[in-house]
Automatic annotation (TrEMBL):
Keywords: Cell membrane, G-protein coupled receptor, Membrane, Receptor, Transducer, Transmembrane, Transmembrane helix. It comes from the Eukaryota. CDD domains: 7tmA_TAARs (cd15055). The keyword Cell membrane applies. One of its GO terms (cellular component) is plasma membrane. PANTHER family: HISTAMINE RECEPTOR-RELATED G-PROTEIN COUPLED RECEPTOR, TRACE AMINE ASSOCIATED RECEPTOR 19P-RELATED. It is a multi-pass membrane protein. It is found in: Cell membrane. This is G-protein coupled receptors family 1 profile domain-containing protein. Its main location: membrane.
Length: 329
């Protein structure tokens, strides 16, 4: 009987202080392991392809793609953060209190940077569709690079302040050995909720509603005058179509992002995210991570240049000396 009890403990040698493993059917456990491991691997591989594509090919060095590169980097790290969830699936944490806190800290930074990047995407599309004449002068590569860097730096600083107490006192709320749990201060959690979700999501929704209204009116105007345009004007029309197509594609990215992230913050609004290892929060956390796997799949469906770069990467044609100059658009 003692042996049976010991086998249910995370650390059988610590009978009085060890956490107990939750009882789960073997088939269910293996299915979850395989599913999450596959999603984690796919997330890392697909986003690595996006990073290589935009970084390698010079023609893809556009302001919009630089923002997508930032999003791909955050999604790439999400694939690694998922490993922490996979390790903790059996209910036992073997990497120590410090790694538990660092894992949560990294997850917070990535989420914050992703939300900030979505705001940048919305601003980029707002200027491109609503103020097209000012786009080339207002949205430059250098300005986008500065904004992306600020987004990441601010995410690191902001989350360091939010999780300062947790990082300084790791394992403070651990009730048994083998548990990975953090408790976020109420005020800190409220500040994070406001500045990492409510404010940026409001900005995103307002900007994209404006983009949608303008895009619809422009599409209607083009349909009315398409037969009467000259060759010179038709080039402008094609450019407008390209911008609106990009707006639709990035709109899909933003909508999917909101669908995957909103449930987590809805849980936060009810006060259930204070215990991040609670079973009620497991699904919404995994859903927010799954969004990082979906983004590259959206690019595959909507961006011909991404499908082309994938072929060049997997066939090792990017190793050729002149591959950087290849035409992708």
């Amino acid at each position: 009987m003692e042996t049976l009890e010991g086998s249910e403990l995370c650390f059988p040698q610590l009978l009085n202080t060890s956490c107990r493993k939750p009882v789960r059917p073997h088939f269910e456990t293996m299915l979850i392991y395989i599913l999450l491991s596959s999603i984690s691997l796919l997330t890392v591989v697909l986003n690595l392809l996006v990073i290589i594509s935009i970084s390698h090919f010079k023609q893809l060095h556009t302001p919009t793609n630089l923002i997508l590169l930032s999003l791909a980097v955050s999604d790439f790290f999400v694939g690694f953060v998922m490993c922490f969830q996979i390790i903790h699936l059996d209910g036992c944490w073997f990497l120590g209190d410090l790694m538990c806190a660092l894992g949560q800290y990294l997850a917070y930074i990535i989420t914050s940077a992703s939300v900030g990047t979505m705001v940048l995407i919305s601003v980029d599309r707002f200027v491109a569709i609503c103020h097209p004449l000012h786009y080339s002068t207002e949205i430059t590569e250098k300005r986008v690079q500065v904004c992306v860097c600020l987004c990441w730096v601010c995410s690191v600083i902001f989350q360091s302040l939010i999780l300062k107490d947790i990082l300084e006192k790791t394992g403070r709320y651990i009730s048994c050995v083998g548990e990975c749990i953090i408790v976020v201060n109420y005020i800190a959690g409220l500040v994070d909720l406001i500045f990492s979700f409510i404010v940026p999501i409001t900005v995103i929704v307002v900007l994209y509603m404006r983009v949608f209204v303008v895009a619809v009116s422009q599409a209607r105007a083009m349909r009315l005058h398409i037969a009467a345009v000259t060759l010179q004007k038709s080039v402008k029309v094609t450019a407008k179509k390209s911008e609106m197509k990009a707006a639709r594609t990035l709109g899909v990215v933003v909508v999917v992002f909101l669908i995957c992230l909103c449930p987590y913050y809805c849980v936060a609004l009810t006060g259930q995210d204070n215990l991040l290892n609670a079973s009620s929060a497991t699904f919404v956390i995994c859903l927010s991570y799954f969004n990082s796997c979906l983004n590259p799949l959206i690019y595959v469906l909507f961006y011909p240049w991404f499908r082309k770069t994938i072929r060049l990467i997997v066939t090792f044609k990017i190793m050729q000396s002149d591959s950087r100059e290849a035409k992708m658009l």
